[in-house]
């Protein structure tokens, strides 16, 4: 079983990943500013309060872990202004991982980031850019920094996120010609992530996940 650092562990895909990883028997260090409030009880869970934008916090959180899951998000209200969280946090995480010798990174970005932007349908492009443009420009920078690293990375690009339990019935689209948008639950994204912790099929690849 692996010792995992989940960055952004208190909510969304990060929280679902913590639950799924614990259920699979992994040791989990749950990193978030509000980590103390994570409502889970498990002997393999370590709550680690810290700021993803603090190099010192990130370096401390990496001590002793074998792989990192990066799941960051910004509130809808912040999408109207400049967004730098994704790239700034990654610019701290990647060098810290390289320094610590932690090679495996699964980073959640989203369908429409990087070279998957060209796969957005014509009718979706204008509203997508209006609402998410600033965030996805920053996700582009995030992905670029990860690709330039020497890490064993996987870029995880889910479609439109929904609630609900994991079904295990989702598609892993790893060829650009197959990329498309669609719905997928946060729990199913977490299921994919946890399955990749001990696999190498998608190392140094970007995948789109849809149901």
SSE inventory with pairings:
Layout lengths: L2 E5 L4 H12 L3 E6 L12 E5 L5 H7 L5 E5 L13 H16 L3 E5 L13 H26 L4 E7 L1 E3 L8 E3 L9 E3 H11 L8 E6 L1
Parallel strand pairs: 1-2, 1-4, 2-3, 4-5, 5-6, 6-10, 7-9
Antiparallel strand pairs: 8-10
Helix pairs in contact: 1-5, 3-4
Outline the structure in words.
The chain is of the alpha/beta class and 211 residues long. It has a single domain (3-210), classed as 3-Layer(aba) Sandwich (Rossmann fold), CATH 3.40.50.720. 34% of the residues lie in helices and 23% in strands. Strands 3-2-1-4-5-6-10-8 form an 8-stranded mixed β-sheet, sandwiched between helices. Strand 5 (104-108), helix 4 (122-147) and strand 6 (152-158) form a beta-alpha-beta unit. Helix 1 crosses helix 5 and helix 3 runs parallel beside helix 4 (122-147).
Provide tags for this entry:
211 residues, alpha/beta, 10 strands, 34% helix, NAD(P)-bd_dom_sf, Polyketide_Oxido-like, NAD(P)-bd_dom, NAD(P)-binding domain-containing protein
